[in-house]
Predict the 3D structure of the following.
Amino acid sequence: MGASEAKNWQQSAWQEKHVTHTGQAEPKRQVKVKVHKRWVTPGEKLMYTVFSVLAVVALFFAVSFSSSADALNRDVQQLQQQVQEQQSANENLQFKVKELSNPDRILRIAKENGLQIQNTQVKQASMIAN
């Protein structure tokens, strides 16, 4: 049997199956298949999701780091302000020490309290050390 004979036999067998009672062949039915064209493939969705999560995590850490750095800077500024206040208080106390250690003042207070200084000179201790 040749290829053309096989083809003719196949076509005749098909026609015998599809002949209606009236003797006419049924028209071929065309089935329409809807093809859903996806804009984004599942692999792309996965990649977008992973990158979105990574971006959100990175932004969270950036905001967290910025917040902690800001809090640290505020603490440093408060400490610097306290240091400056303490330095000014120390300078004020050093000035008072110089005023209170004036030799004339010491002699005046000694005389008021009945002390007598005989043949001696009153000098500041810092001058002797130099």
About this structure: The CA atoms of residues 64 and 70 lie 10 Å apart.
